[in-house]
Amino acid sequence: MAVTALKEYIGVPRDSIEHFGGKQIVYASWDHHLLFASSLMMCLPIDMPFGEMVNGPLTALVAPDPDSAALDWKKVEWMKDNKPFTPDFSKSLAENGIGHKDQIRFHTPGLNSLLKVA
Q1: Closest by CA position to 101, among listed 52, 42, 36
Q2: What's CA 20's distance to the chain center, in Å?
Q3: 3-class SS at 82?
Q4: What does the alpha-carbon distance between residue 56 and residue 41 come to, in Å, rounded to a whole number?
Q5: Per-residue confidence (pLDDT) for residue 118, from 0 to 100
Q6: Which of 4, 48, 66, 105 has an alpha carbon 20 to 30 Å from 111's alpha carbon atom?
Q7: What is the DSSP code (8-state) at residue 76?
Q8: Which whole-number Å values give the CA distances from 96 to 16, 20, 39, in the listed order?
Q9: Which residues contact 85 (CB under 8 A, 6 or more apart)?
Q10: C-alpha closest to that of 92 among 56, 33, 44, 42
Q11: What is the overall mean pLDDT for the chain?
Q12: Range 86-105 burial, b when 16+ CB lie within 10 A, else e
């Protein structure tokens, strides 16, 4: 159905990066681990090193999964924009090309709790 505006409509997105005070939203999902119904959302400083994100908030968020104790971050296979991605753990999220509302996925060969049930 067509909509006709009565006056000029100027849409202002309220979730753009300017509204996050130097932080950005980053989504992460762990392939084959559907204990989490959706991607995990983190609000992180843009200059946070990738390794700090992994060892801090991301490790805490995936901790409830039974496979998390066996998770070796050095063996994780990363995906960004549905393409293989090799992050530099010492560089910032921005330097790794991770922007506002980007999603990263990770796969852990040998740790597939979803497949154990199937």
Answers
A1: 42
A2: 16
A3: coil
A4: 13
A5: 46
A6: 48
A7: P
A8: 20, 20, 19
A9: 78, 79, 104
A10: 44
A11: 91
A12: ebeeeebbeebebebebbbb
Model confidence band, residue 34 (pLDDT cutoffs 50, 70, 90): confident
The pair of structure tokens assigned to 54 is 């992994």
Tally the C-alpha atoms within 13 A of residue 43's C-alpha that lie toward its C-beta.
8
Q: How confident is the model at residue 80 (pLDDT cuts 50, 70, 90)?
A: very high
H/E stretch holding 114 reads helix 113-117
Q: How many helices (H) and strands (E) does the chain have?
A: 3, 5
CA angle 53, 116, 75 (to 5 degrees): 35
List Cβ neighbours of 110 (8 Å cut-off, separation of 6 or more): none
Quote the DSSP letter at residue 48.
-
Tokens representing residue 53 in the block = 């994100």
Instruction: Write down the H helix ranges in 15-55.
Output: 50-53
pLDDT single digits (tens) 51-79:
999 999 999 999 999 899 999 999 999 99
